[in-house]
Amino acid sequence: MLEIKNLHVRVEDNEILKGVNLTLNRGEVHAIMGRNGSGKSTLSYVLAGKEDYEVTEGEILLDGENLLEMEADERAAAGVFLAFQYPIEIPGVATMTFLKAAMNAQRKARGEGELSTPDFMRAVKDAAGLLEIKQDMLKRPLNVGFSGGEKKRAEILQMALLAPKLCILDETDSGLDIDALKVVSEGVNKLRDPERSMLVITHYQRLLNYIVPDVVHVFSAGRVVETGDKSLALELEAKGYADFDESNAA
Ligand code: ADP
Ligand code: MG
Ligand code: MG
Predict the structure, then answer these.
(1) Site residues for ligand 1, CB cut-off 6 Å
(2) Distance in Å, CA 96 to ligand 3 centroid
(3) How far is the CA of 77 from the centre of ligand 3 (A)?
(4) What are the chain's domains?
């Protein structure tokens, strides 16, 4: 589904990604682990099509299509979803209204008509039920005064409604207490699907106790330096990143 080949990316004249190679098959959940500053968020932004990232070399293919030639809204229409590390607050806009706008934007980019209110209400009710989200949260402005756990629930709800084929979760675990972590992980696990691939970015092994990945990649200094199964996350937790940094230098 997703092929990243020799990806080099610059931000403000600094090379941040230095030849990333990664293949993610349909239905698989891959984790990317790496220390702070290794370029994990940069990779997720480049995948989502955020501006100000200059790709100097390499390619990204989504089901064989050149993702780098697509605008951010075209990527969303094609089924790419990025859950941010720091969710934005939107004062004055009810979460419900935001979700409807997000769904309609995706539909528009796909050349589909607007969702009717009853169809939207039904979709929200189904998704909120699946994720055990209380309806009253949806009437409040998006993320304003939300707890860390509520922000993540809102994000996972948005993900459920947009039904992406590629989900990128960038440090969805940061700032969550253990109960919220379980709720979010359960939500993500419910959205696992043979047609959906997920890239879970984290620097804590503990998230992967709940969202068990098929494949783990270790990221260091802007590259994937090691790929393995879920036991690699445990090895990393035990040894720390230093060993992997050396394999990067070699
Ligand atoms: P991670 O998510 O692994 O912590 P990031 O992708 O956020 O890493 O950052 C990787 C490196 O790129 C860091 O050294 C960071 O300072 C740098 N960087 C990220 N964004 C910018 C930016 N907009 N301008 C300059 N440097 C940046
Ligand atoms: Mg970071
Ligand atoms: Mg980051």
Answers:
(1) 11-12, 14, 16, 34, 36-42
(2) 28
(3) 24
(4) 2-249 (3.40.50.300)
CA distances from 33 to 11, 21, 60, 99, 207 (A): 21, 14, 20, 30, 11
- Report the atom number in ligand 1 closest to the C-alpha of 36: 4
At 192-237, the pLDDT tens digits run 999 999 999 987 788 888 999 999 999 999 999 999 999 999 888 8
Global pTM reads 0.90
Expressed in angstroms and rounded, the spacing between residue 97 Cα and the centre of ligand 2 is 30
**Alpha carbons 81 and 74: distance in angstroms, whole number:** 11
At 100-126, the pLDDT tens digits run: 998 998 899 889 999 999 999 999 999
For residue 83, what are its two tokens? 């859950």
**ipTM of the prediction:** 0.93
